[in-house]
Amino acid sequence: MKNAFLLLLVAVMLPMTPTSAQTPETVYSFALVRKPTPWYKQQIEAWKKVIDSNPGNGLAWYNYYYANRNYVRTDTACTISYEDQQQLLNSIGDSMAKHLPDAYEYHLIMWMNHSFDLSYKHHLEKVLELGEGRIEHIDYIINAGEIDRDLDKRNDGILRKEAAGLLSPGMMYTNRNVLAGLKPRAILITAGDNDTYPAFAVQAHDFRSDVLVINSSLILITEYRQKICKELGIPEIKINWEAKKESDPEHRVYFNKHLVERLANNPQKRPVYVAASAMHQDEIVQPVANQLYLTGLAYLYSSEVVDELAALKDNFEHHFTLDYILYPYYQDISESLVPVMNQNYIVPMLKLYHHYSASGDLNRKAWIRKYLLKITEGTSSEAEVRNQLN
Q1: Pairing state between β 298-301 and 292-294
Q2: Rounded to an integer, what distance in angstroms lies between the CA atom of residue 315 and that of residue 306?
Q3: Domain coordinates of the chain in residue numbers?
Q4: How far is the C-alpha of 80 from the C-alpha of 33, rounded, in Å?
Q5: Would you say 238 and 256 are in contact if contact means Cβ atoms under 8 Å apart?
Q6: pLDDT tens digits for 170-187?
Q7: Is the pLDDT of residue 251 over 90?
Q8: Digit-coded pLDDT (tens) for 118-147
């Protein structure tokens, strides 16, 4: 009954739109291609019509699932709880089980909807068995390679993703600069698709493969965390899963001891960085906030004071590739999302701008100003940055 209620609830929330606006289109992860929330609503209706006429159409079910998933995750006005959102997505899998239980798309959706829960790994195994030539599951091949620490498998998957046009060149350039600004054999903590997969891709092209990139979601997997700790020669890092509380409206994860400190306490003396794009991860950042130093597009953890400005100058003047910001001579599937990622340049570039201004280096001041204006053009940061530049 609850599944039926949720489907009815969504139907009530989604008023009918004109037929002309309901042409079915491919729905991608919103981390790759982000559309306005009403567009996802239209695609829910459009793909539901396809399913009603042909319940055995696996690709229609896949797009219908992704449209629902993106809709509830991008709609800021959505009043459905997280648990009910998951129940809604589970109900799609339940419906698929009745119509095409042996289909590639069914097993893929079941794994997607329970990602990182290894009790559902048999669905991933079926996906791999049935998915010869398919690219919809490529991220999970990459994840599996990383979790198994089979870097050949991971790199093969990431290069296939790139060849399929499912990697953003702009994101790869940004992540190249993130990696370029790190000390040798660094450990880098990242937070999402767009600061992890492009970094893997850059490494697959033999650039800074000495860096250990640790995604803050993957590190929650016990099997993976154990492998990383063994690789670094440190005791296993334990975590606490806190129950949902009124004072803590999200499911948060608490490491028994500070993650950054534990990683940094490795006998190999590998330095630890938190990517600027991961600084919103409070449970990771807050315990060590006073020991994090902005040295490029990442923050270096250090118990000793670090000369941030010297490191910023060295990285921006000698190690970073920046021309792609001014001259993006490529097609980018994530064209609308690259400017969001590039906001991570603002704070370090402003620090450099003020330094060049104070030191009278007018050439460098004009140089960094040009990039700041381009990065913030048309964004919510533009007015504030222009005020500081003026």
Answers
A1: antiparallel
A2: 14
A3: 2-101, 167-389
A4: 24
A5: yes
A6: 999 999 999 999 999 999
A7: no
A8: 788 899 899 999 999 999 999 999 998 999
